Amino acid sequence: MTSADGLFEIALIIALIALxxxxxxxxxxxxxxxxxxxxxxxxxxxxxxxxGLIVVLGIYQGxxxxxxxxxxxxMLGFVSTVALARFIxxxxxxx
Amino acid sequence: xSLFLLVALPFFGALLPGIMNSAGRSACAGVTFTVSLAAFVxxxxxxxxxxxxxxxxARIDWMPELGLNFTLMLDGLGFFFxxxxxxxxxxIIVYGRNYLSREDNMGEFFTYLLLFQGAMVGIVMSDNILLxxxxxxxxxxxxxxxxxxxxxxxxxxQGARMALTVTGMGGLSMIGGMLILGQxxxxxxxxxxxxxxxxxxADPMFLPALILIxxxxxxxxxxxxxxxxxxxxxxxxTPVSAYLHSATMVKAGIFLMARMWPVFSGxxxxxxxxxxxxxxxxxxxxxxxxxKHDLKSLLAFSTVSHLGxxxxxxxxxxxxxxxxxxxxxxxxxxxxxxxxxxxxxxxHEAHTxxxxxxxxxxxxxxxxxxxxxxxxxxxxxxxxxxGFLSKEMMLEEAHHTVLFGSHWLVPVMATVGSxxxxxxxxxxxxxxxxxxxxxDYPHKPHDPNAGMWLPPALLAVLxxxxxxxxxxVQDFVFLVAKAVMGDAAVLKTKYIKIWHGLTPAxxxxxxxxxxxxxxxxxxxxxxxxxxxxxxxxxKVIFEAMIAAFVRLSQxxxxxxxxxxxxxxxxxxxxAMIAAGYHAYATGTVAAPVRAIQSAGPVPIAGWxxxxxxxxxxxxxxxxxxxxxxxxxxVGLMVSVGFVYLSAPDLAMTQFTVEVVTIILLLxxxxxxxxxxxxxxxxxRRTRDAVVSVAAGLATFGLAYHYLLRDFIDPSISEFHxxxxxxxxxxxxxxxxxxxxxxxxxxxGEIIVLGIAALLIYAxxxxxxxxxxxxxxxNRVPDQPRSGDMHPMMMVVVTRVIxxxxxLVGFYIFLRGHNEPGGGFIAGLIVSIAVVMQYMASxxxxxxxxxxxxYHGVIGAGVLVAGLTGIGSWFVGKPFLTSDFTYVRIPPFxxxxxxxxxxxxxxxxxxxxxxxxLSLESFSRLARRADSAENEHPxxxxxxxxxxxxxxxxxxxxx
Lengths: 95, 958
Known about the structure:
The structure holds 2 protein chains of 2 kinds.
Chain A: H1 3-32, H2 36-61, H3 65-90
Helix pairs in contact in A: 1-2, 2-3
Chain B: H1 3-13, H2 15-20, H3 25-44, H4 47-51, E1 56-63, E2 68-74, H5 76-99, H6 106-125, H7 129-147, H8 154-185, H9 190-193, H10 197-202, H11 206-220, H12 229-232, H13 238-247, H14 249-264, H15 268-290, H16 295-316, H17 319-350, H18 361-364, H19 366-380, H20 386-399, H21 409-432, H22 450-468, H23 471-485, H24 504-521, H25 523-532, H26 538-557, H27 565-586, H28 601-620, H29 624-644, H30 648-669, H31 682-707, H32 717-728, H33 733-741, H34 743-769, H35 772-777, H36 792-815, H37 823-841, H38 843-848, H39 854-871, E3 884-887, E4 895-898, H40 899-925, H41 942-947
Antiparallel strand pairs in B: 1-2, 3-4
């Protein structure tokens, strides 16, 4: 194993741990609240973090298909956030 | 004409009246008549073969493994019945055209009529008894629809239900009898069964089979003690009564007894059961008929009585009895159909069919009077009319029949039956048509148009012709009787004659006719006695029995099925835990063969979050929105977990399903309070907690056990992995399993999905049209609305992203066969893309741009998948066999074409349709008349403001 590879792996592990920590912190925010808006924002952040986790996992394991999962999450992840937000603001999400 | 075509013609023809309904009533009746006529002519083309004594056969293997083949047979007996069914059918169609009023839906009526006709023709031409049963049940269903045709009449609905219940139960027992019979013989083909008389009669299961089959025949042909449904079926329109309840359906039981005659007759069991049932029915029906004041009720009981007569003749088991039975079937069909039609004419013109309010119609309706008199006198057994001939043959047969060791029983009963029969015939004529003209008819009666009286007149002519010149039909009747008997008996009689000399039968006949006249003279005092005698009312008993059965089923099912989902889940979970524990405690457990692997910090973090979210959900589930957000976390973490465990398809599916679920639940939450109230006691919740913790621990134990051990048997995954590319042409095993290995399951699943979506639609539609609508309209939002209705930013983002999402969906779909993806995921992705537009620009804006209704999309999906499956039939392969090939169109790289992809397209369409239909249905509930309908995609649109020169066109987002 060359030193570059080793460094790369360490970087990936750090990224993973950072993302996981971010995920845990977002979750804490979600539990604490205090308003529903905070919680929705926390959920949205969790989606972003999950996206990062999937991408890093893909690089780490060397599987390309994971990027497509990431693509889907990136493309559609905002839909549930928008729906939740609309629900709080308008009650009816399709009006 | 081919027998298949003959049977199929009425069924296919049944599609036409509905289509022709809008073309007018005559066109509708005309097309129905043409269908019947075509079948009739087709039947006649087989006449030469029948006259030559041949049996026409046709056969298609349907389910040979079950012994169920589409085998048709046309012999003398079948031909005779088919002739009656189609011939009288045509007369009924002409009559019905004129009988039904403008308010009645004629297309519906004739559709049912043709369905019934097809089923009847099917019964009499079936060679396979299982096939016969199918047609048998079809006649019950068609008659249910016909009897209940006037849906607004309670009697019609009740009568239809009663008829269906009684004949349906009989059909059920007949299925049992037929199966036993088939087991005895080893074949379900009638032609084989009829050859095995000795084997069947010697079998110990003979009696059960006989009783079960007779139950079917007796219920269908209204024999005592099942006779009660027929009079109640008279609530049907008169054409139905004339067709079903005189000439065809009630004769189906008789037909089957005649068909089975060679096998069953001659045994004492058959003789005692059939003869006594027939005899009782004959006398009972005749006596009751005399005292009925409703014309159709009178005729109904007289039909019961005559069916009893025929049954009794078949029961005697002699060749002469069979001959008389066949002849009487013919005669009864002619005069009884004519009588029913006359009664219908009276009802139609005088607006009543209560005999007490009629009388003196002779002068007002001379044509109807003539027809009805000829038919009724024939029924009474007056010489030179056809009823006399067969009735005398019956009396002759009765004279020779010894029942229960008595020489007197049968002749006396037969004479009494004939006597009352003559009496009610005379009453029918005398009290309806004779006597003084009255001035209090509900409606001034006069003869109807020719379309109504011609059909019964034709039958009346037949009555006279057969009565005067029996030799015209003699050969045919003998032929049919021979077909009934097969090799079981030989006819000794050569002729059907009017004058036999001074035989006992003639004396009995004379007693009957003059006795009948005498009884009519004494009608008033007799009627008084009858009215005061208490007698069981069949309808009351029947309803009480039904109510008792309903109570019994309630007692049995309510404790088990009380609607509480918690309870079902608890019972299910406890049962599963118990079974699992039993297996664990009594079976052997292999030693672990795998080591426990260590988990890194990141998976542990993910796991901890999953657990935390789940626990949080349990604690906070009463806050509905919060619960939904927590469910979002669970879904997200599960998706990431799938990725981590190398299952990208599952991750994609999980994620897209998650998005759709949140949207669906939010739409529903709009109508629900924010908090779930506490409804159950602490004790109950503790119980539920204990059960669910136990279930969780058991699942954990099972998973732990399996993760450390290999399967005992090689798992099926090996097969799938090995054959996925070889057999299915795809390298994505999951997709190949879905669309190929288990394609049939998937086909069923998309159908279920479609049905579920349609049900959601139907339920919301029902809500919107029901009393809930007012509450929905008056609903006040529980919190103030804020923000834009359709914010510009969201509109722009969703529009821009739409083509991208569609492209990704397309890509995922195409690639599905070899890489993770497929129709299901693609369907969800595309649905989300469309839902985004709904959310951004609103329901009405999006609906207005919708080209294809979602119902159609679902249907198209199921159709495409189904057609793909059927496609493999054309190359001689079983349903859903898939094939694939490689195609290279220069300059492209070669690519694969698989039929499975087409199937996947069906899955895709069904998923899109189902998801969108359910979302749209929920959203439709929130639509209110007062809410501002938007025609613009967004509330604030700078381009519009500029073009309108800053007018107040901009909508307020309030």
